[in-house]
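> tool_call: predict_assembly(chains=two)
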Amino acid sequence: MSRTTESAARGGAITDAAASNSVSAICAAAKVASRVLASASSEQKDRALAILAELIEQRAEQILGANQADLSDPRAIGLEPALLDRLELNAARVAAIAAGVRAVIALADPVGEVLEARTIEAGVELEMRRVPIGVVAVVYEARPNVTIDCAALCLKSGNAIVLRGSSYAARSNRVLSEIVVEALHAAGLPADAVALLDGADRAEMAELVTQDGVVDLVIPRGGEGLKNALKEVATVPVIYAASGNCHVYVDLGADLGKALAIILNAKTQRPGVCNAAETLLVHRGAAADFLPEALAALSEAGVELVGDEATRALAAPVAVGRADEEDYRTEYHALKLCVAVVASLDAAIAHVNRYGSGHSDAIVTGSPTSAQRFAAEVDSACVYINASTRFTDGFVFGLGAEIGNSTQKLHARGPIGLRELCTYKYVLSGDGAVRG
Amino acid sequence: MSRTTESAARGGAITDAAASNSVSAICAAAKVASRVLASASSEQKDRALAILAELIEQRAEQILGANQADLSDPRAIGLEPALLDRLELNAARVAAIAAGVRAVIALADPVGEVLEARTIEAGVELEMRRVPIGVVAVVYEARPNVTIDCAALCLKSGNAIVLRGSSYAARSNRVLSEIVVEALHAAGLPADAVALLDGADRAEMAELVTQDGVVDLVIPRGGEGLKNALKEVATVPVIYAASGNCHVYVDLGADLGKALAIILNAKTQRPGVCNAAETLLVHRGAAADFLPEALAALSEAGVELVGDEATRALAAPVAVGRADEEDYRTEYHALKLCVAVVASLDAAIAHVNRYGSGHSDAIVTGSPTSAQRFAAEVDSACVYINASTRFTDGFVFGLGAEIGNSTQKLHARGPIGLRELCTYKYVLSGDGAVRG
């Protein structure tokens, strides 16, 4: 069946609405579809995902053609190399996208799990059931792979999804989303369960994030600029996958060999990601023993260093620039590290809570008491004891996959996996039960 | 120790901040206190609650004196009787407030529970631990009992609380919050963990709900006006305990005796509460058998009735007014019911999802298939099968107590108990573990 016939096959009022192409009509159609998807069986959802993976492989050429058109668009020419790299697909990347979809099939379906069950008053049986959230909107940058990653996770968790990608990736996203629609249809699921907005302008995004009662959740995947833009306009709940200003604190009495291995791993193994360390804190009683060797090793590894006066005094012959307040707040996303000496465990905890982003923070210590105090009092999604911050990841944590990493405290904290894309409802059954 | 000495005893930078009395200073002090409270033992928190219950009983006279001053304030004279009733305390109500605190002591401490534990890569041990949210702000109307109810639930769940009551209850709230501070101090817990704002003006509330990164959650307890006011200004996450426009649907083939008992209970047992039914839907195949008797019984019970044309055609001799679209949306909070005949189960589900508030909705049916479809497709926090909507309540559900009832889908849905006042964090322990 061609994609044109496919579109026509949606039929009825929903198509008419979607065809009108307004954001509110597209979201309303997604809402209707979400109610069908919420009741779909695991088998049916997995069948759609299997077809999706297959179609992605079969249509690799078409996908790459559309991507080539995005890449050679005059607007794309001016993009920074890092952004162009994210926009670009190739045969290996397309294969990886299909493999990602198959990995989602392998995950357990979170929907329908009975979280609690008990009998309450009047013989009423209470069940707390995990259910999909409904309609999830994902706002993201020019990364076509995100289109499929997010669609697959939402489909598996029974949610309809409205994708708002970047206009730079418009052609790639169009082909990919059409393939998702085709897979849904082939599996007997409603095509409106996935929709792609044009990514045309800010007004479109503002309309999307104010669809109260229709869109149930907005997940932005992007930088601080996108976050601030959403904060101003969104009335629909948003889970911000915010930046990671992560810390490693070396306590008095820590094993300094382990401390060095951890900060080197946390800073240099993959410096561009959100769980990489940005600030090293060292107890003043450990500074003289630890810092000269650690700074030399970090410098050797290509890390640019800035530090407070106490750090700089111990640095020679390594060059350490002067750190200011702004450095404490900065996520470098690069081979650069801020270093500071602190007077105590309390000072370290206070520093992390003041300047950190609540993402991932580590203590290296030999003291179980210090470890537990750090774990309890550092107000972050992930707290590490004698381990690198680099482990924060939905796949590594055993959640299977992630749609982002939340530094908020409500609903989802840390990796947002399938379970976090669900809510729950209470289902109560009686035999004519009334309250006395 | 007098309350003046008590205040002076707080000491240090926090007092200076709180003494400045600005909303931001009070919230910042609550944040510092919240970190201590998060690590407090169950025993210490329960000791504070036991002292609180005792002090409330000992100071009953003082509490009633302050309440009398609120009641006889010239501003209070003009209040509606229902509002005056909510503002008024008496000896029995003070005793009930103390008993409520003791009931919270009896609940299990949710903090520290290990929700998941597993070993991930490199031998790292992962624990997902339940932890307090941090600083919770509660915005409420002129009900002094809420001051203690909410303070007790937040204290038990390890959260600091900033109370923003009504200026009508200012004197009552002041005495009650001072008693909480005294109990905290006597148990060795930080006094800044509970704070009361004056309730003076809207600017104060706007400042409170924009304390990003300091206040972690706002819970409004009030009507739609309060909700809309917050929607406009809040940047801190809010859990709205919204209205309950609840439905009872009588399916084709339902046991009509049970159906009648359920609608009578749902509408008349306590019509002023949010889990009372506001609309009765009846399958057209059951209408002729059910409605004449049901309408007569409801009318007999003092219920004012409005209905669609199909209902009105079956009503004689009972008087049934004409229902319009607005009735479908209205939470009467009174002995008034809207009645409509629907063509099918699908039409009933669509009606509930269109007009309902996602609170509590019931089906009366003999069909397990209809029951499961209604439970799955009605997008409400609580869905009832052959039972009255009136059971929705944190205490009845076995959560122990509730701070409100959420009709949102994120974080908390349905009754907000101690568990819902918590978030979680991942604590990961290694022995120098790094990511490969």
